[in-house]
Amino acid sequence: MKLHKDEIAVDEVLVRSLLGAQRPEWAGLPLMPAGAGTDNTMYRLGDELLVRLPRTPENARSVLKEQVWLPRLAPQLSCPVPAPVHIGTPTDAFPLAWSVYRWIEGDEAAANTVGDWAAFGADLAAFVEELHGADLMGARPADGLDWYRAGGLKPCDPWISACFDDCRTLVGTELDIDALERLWRAALALPDPSASPVWLHGDLKPSNVVVSAGRFHAVIDFGGLSIGFPDAEHATIWDYPAEARHAYWDSLNLDPETWARARAWSIAVALSGISYYRETFPAFVAECRTRLQAILADAAGRQAAAAS
């Protein structure tokens, strides 16, 4: 499934040719698809390895970040994170950097894998607190660790406003786009965050959080790794049930302004996802719609509670 105009096609034949040239001892291991997101395509290699290939040249920048910084960050984190065991070099057939990682056993966070959503939300908050407290080790945004979600909301307003217009046409009958835009505008009116820059994962959605035995276990896909303001880190919490969201907020003791900016980031990412992937990735568009529905329900509940 091609998602981007500049995407490089990947299949099993290509992956085996890369392995044969660069890690021939692995070339004969069983190889099977292990999922594909908006940025990367994955194959499980044998029982213990994962091959991860970026879809586009821009996505390859994220691969390089993981290769450089994950080995340095991992000792500061108490949960498993991807461990690169091979740094794949570009070839004529695949002219981008790619990686092989240790396989992390477990399941995506979901209704049938998480045993206690409140405990999960608290554990996810503990990971975020740990990551945000990790030593920067001299790293700066200029070291390839800049990203739009690591800054303030205001620079994104022109293109997010266009996404609001898109979504009024695409899903306006299913979602209250005007209410979502009011939440966005209210967050824009707030002062920019004043917190010190921290390490950010950038995309803690359910498919990037691994569960084992019903509990939070590991975090994968650090392609959004960056240094900046923490607000957007909290944006994916609306992808989880209310019990997880409330426990997460309570554990981090987030102030209302941070919560409002995080919610605005959540709206922005979902709206832009619907706008960009509306014809190419219907499953992801459905996830974005579900997130926006959760945001509207949560906001309505908070408004009702404040009025009572």
UniProtKB/TrEMBL annotation:
Cited CDD domains: APH_ChoK_like_1 (cd05155)
UniProt-listed Pfam families: APH
Residues in Aminoglycoside phosphotransferase domain copies: 33-265
InterPro entries, sorted: AGP_Transferase, Aminoglycoside_PTrfase, Kinase-like_dom_sf
Name of the protein this chain belongs to: Aminoglycoside phosphotransferase family protein
Lineage: Bacteria, Bacillati, Actinomycetota, Actinomycetes, Catenulisporales
